[in-house]
Amino acid sequence: NSFPQRVAVIGTGYVGLGTAGLLAHIGYQVTGIDIDPAKIAQLQRGEVPIHEPGLEGLLAGQEERLTWTTSYEAITEADVIFICVGTPPGPDGTPNLNYVTSAAASLAPFLNGHAQIIVNKSTVPIGTGDYVQRLLEDHSPNFDETRHRVVSNPEFLREGTALSDSLYPDRLVMGGHPDAVDYLARLYAPLIEQTFVPPAGTPRPDSYTRPAVVRTTLQSAEMIKYAANAFLALKISFANEIGGLCERVGADIQEVSTGIGFDGRIGHRFLQAGLGWGGSCFGKDTQGLISAGREHSYAMPILQAAIDVNYRQRQLVIDKLIRHLKSLKGKRITVLGMAFKPNTDDLRDAPAHDLIARLTQLGAVVTAHDPVAMPRASREWAHLTYTAAADAATALVRADAVIIATEWDEYVQLNWSELVGTMRRPLIIDARNILRDALPAQVEQIGREAAHYQPEQVLE
Ligand code: UDX
């Protein structure tokens, strides 16, 4: 069996760019393909279309091994073809497979006689691997079942730490025909053995050794991705549900999460109470599983509850504001943080979106700030009414309240005790539980009693 040398990556989002950069870094000849000529032109100029720490540096060093094109011709030469296109949710939560379908149909005519593995990295409904294989059969004159196999190889990277997550993963999951999985494992050998030199800026973590390699059927690999995300989403909602009761009985979710997390069966991660999850994965994948269940007349009440708790959190923050301010009509409310989490400019399913929409609906005058996501917001959130502030300090001036919606480090570092003095009313809804010190302000956090309560006051 030959050794894979050439790789094609279809799609230049978080997953595609990370995969292309990583495979070029570990030594392969990579072609990145996207149907969007503007994105390809940007990448050819050395610009990266998304904000992801370290990505620009990783791609910049690779001009020799990494090329960008809108043409599918590179498929002919490729030994391994990665499909990394988006699967955005439809109105009922069912993932939209249009991009996967068109990627498979477009690449198929270029398949040739040598062994070529088609790897699905997009998060897709269980059964999509077989569907892609059928599309390849239908659209390729050279299709040969023994040479052209589909493998599911889900991606577990988190935005903001994408490079580190993909260079030093916990596990590599590969599902499909054993021969095809072997071939893909050979491609990944430098990653599995960790023999590559870590790129500048993304060092190997001290305790890290190597990933677990999990070989499964196609269907199990597809399910593993959904189940992993749904479980993490569930953990966050669980912390939020317990947190709500903590507030009412005088317990503190921060202490409770720490306390339960030491149980090795539970673990500390993803128990942070707050505004709940956002982003492109947790909402979409929990909905995706529920809609898969629906197709089989199978209810998934645990996942539905996790989703309900998550969206209730966004309303609870507004309720807290109303408890203090009575009416929001004409009140100046500042929202700090727009991205769904720190270190990204991704706005998909960001809690701040729902907060801003609800606040304006209730008659508030909203000012918002984000360290990196504001340019993107001016395009993608043009339907919302808010004033974009140049910086966090400006955003706070004469505000009736501030909601911390994203836990950017910049917001942790603000000189809060000075800044609250510039507010009209020093009321902070710290929806991410990031403030630690007592402040001359009313501070509300999530899942714990109003921490540093000061009597109501309005500065005139
Ligand atoms: C997630 C998965 O972690 C990743 O494995 C998968 O491949 C894609 O989906 P991502 O969406 O980039 O990654 O972000 P993640 O860091 O998981 O955070 C998701 C959301 O949960 C954020 O809005 C974050 O603020 C929130 N969160 C996270 C909590 O509210 N509490 C926590 O304890 C952890």
Provide a descriptive summary of the structure in words.
- The protein is of the alpha/beta class.
- It has three domains: 6-205, Rossmann fold; 226-307, N-(1-d-carboxylethyl)-l-norvaline Dehydrogenase, domain 2 (Orthogonal Bundle), CATH 1.10.1040; 311-445, Rossmann fold, CATH 3.40.50.720.
- It is built from 17 helices and 14 strands.
- The protein has helices at 14-25, 37-44, 55-60, 98-107, 128-139, 162-167, 178-187, 189-192, 218-249, 253-261, 282-295, 301-325, 351-361, 374-380, 392-396, 409-413, 416-419, and strands spanning 6-10, 29-33, 66-69, 80-83, 116-120, 148-152, 171-175, 212-216, 332-336, 365-369, 387-388, 401-404, 427-430, 442-445.
- Helix 1 (14-25) links the parallel strand 1 and strand 2.
- The termini are far apart.
- The structure holds uridine-5'-diphosphate-xylopyranose (UDX).
- Uridine-5'-diphosphate-xylopyranose (UDX) binds at residues 155-159, 229, 232, 236, 270-272, 274, 276-279, 281-282, 340-341.
- Uridine-5'-diphosphate-xylopyranose binds next to helix 9.
- This is UDP-glucose 6-dehydrogenase.
- It is an enzyme of class 1 (oxidoreductase).
- Its EC number is 1.1.1.22.
